[in-house]
Design goal:
Layout lengths: L1 E4 L11 E4 L9 E11 L1 H7 L17 E8 L11 E4 L2 E2 L5 H4 L10 E2 L11 E5 L3 E3 L6 H21 L7 E4 L5 H12 L3 E6 L2 H9 L4 E4 L5 H8 L5 E6 L3 H9 L1 E9 L12 H7 L2 E4 L5 H12 L7 E6 L3 H10 L5 E5 L1
Parallel strand pairs: 10-11, 10-13, 11-12, 13-14, 14-15, 16-17
Antiparallel strand pairs: 1-2, 3-4, 3-8, 3-17, 4-5, 5-9, 6-7
């Protein structure tokens, strides 16, 4: 099969090579999926640069999410048949521990990660165990499925399950121009919240308004805490979804109202910050780490996409052989929505 591979970690985009590799061989509990579309994620660029924190065997095929059809099934597979529209879940859970049985496979202590610990979606085929696959609704395209499943599922877990966003509350969403950010704007509006979107360019903020944001803040020239208080009569927001880290995380904490909840899912802008916990005590603020959605989250948002309640945003589609160009665009941050690869 054809795949885009790396044989070393590198900051250089040319480390991504389009080449022929052996098609994966499945065992009795695995499914072989012929990929129709795969996504480009920040964790892919981190992995290429050796920053993911988990070593991958080289040569390696990255890609944490993909969508396609079942090509072959193992002898013990019972839930899927050849031709089914499916997507591998990026958390490769064991399926048999207490966490997995409780529907919390995102914290399975024995799990791997698709495209990190096992070959992933930058290829024509991928193999996955049966317990780590979800079905794609028939009407939903492969491109929209892969563009929306991780961003919407991540946003749903953070805003609805973790932060408990309620009808009529206000929510601040940082990095609103990215895949998860643009998805979070839609999820928050679906929940009936007042959405304040923050991003680094006015162009991204204009797009956020098109998706339903009620107010916007450009954090290249505004302090989030001051700007949010100016928009909320000095109160601050009830909920925040923060995915940048560094100074933006600190400004987001400053923007919270008493009793507010903050969900944090990323730290590309700085992984270590100094927090004044006295402010958290006095304001009764809660901070939650999340960002690894479950199959239930994925199935829920795929259904909402299929019925038109959530709309994936695709910035650009590349051929699989152009993965280096897609990585370069991802690292430039000059995009809104998601980049898609097609074999």
């Amino acid at each position: 099969m054809k795949a885009t591979i790396i044989d070393r970690y590198s900051d250089d985009f040319s480390a991504l090579k389009y080449d022929s590799v052996q098609t994966p061989k499945i065992d009795s509990k695995e499914v072989l999926i012929r990929i129709h579309a795969s996504g480009v994620n920040h964790c892919d660029t981190d992995l290429r640069r050796g920053l993911f924190g988990v070593d991958s065997n080289m040569p390696h095929v990255m890609g944490v999410d993909a969508a396609g059809e079942v090509e072959e099934i193992g002898s013990e597979v019972s839930r899927f048949k050849i031709g089914d529209k499916v997507s591998p879940h990026f958390i490769l859970s064991c399926g048999s521990c207490a966490y997995c049985f409780d529907g919390k496979e995102n914290i399975c202590p024995y799990s791997g990660v698709l495209g990190v610990t096992q070959w992933g979606g930058y290829s024509e085929y991928v193999k996955v165990r049966e317990n780590n696959i979800v079905k794609i609704p028939h009407k939903l395209s492969y491109e929209n499925a892969v563009a929306g499943q991780i961003p919407f599922a991540t946003a749903w877990e953070a805003l609805i399950d973790v932060a408990k966003l309620q009808l009529g509350e206000s929510v601040l969403i940082t990095a609103a121009g990215g895949g998860v950010g643009s998805a979070a704007v839609q999820v928050a509006k679906l929940a009936g919240a007042r959405v304040i979107a923050a991003a680094g360019t006015n162009e991204k903020l204009d797009r956020a308004v098109e998706l339903g944001a009620d107010d916007v803040i450009n954090y290249t020239n505004s302090n989030l805490g001051d700007a949010v208080r100016g928009l909320t009569e000095g109160k601050g927001v009830d909920v925040a979804l923060e995915m940048t880290g560094g100074s933006i995380l600190l400004q987001t904490i400053d923007a919270l109202s008493p009793g507010a909840r903050l969900a944090t899912i990323g730290a590309h802008g700085g992984e270590k910050v100094e927090i004044d916990f006295i402010e958290l005590f006095r304001k009764h603020v809660s901070i939650h780490g999340c960002g690894r959605s479950t199959k239930v989250h994925v199935e829920r948002v795929l259904d909402l996409m299929d019925n038109g309640y959530l709309k994936p945003i695709i910035h650009r589609t590349f051929h699989l052989s152009e993965a280096a160009s897609a990585h370069e665009l991802m690292e430039s941050r000059n995009f809104f929505g998601r980049m898609i690869l097609k074999p």
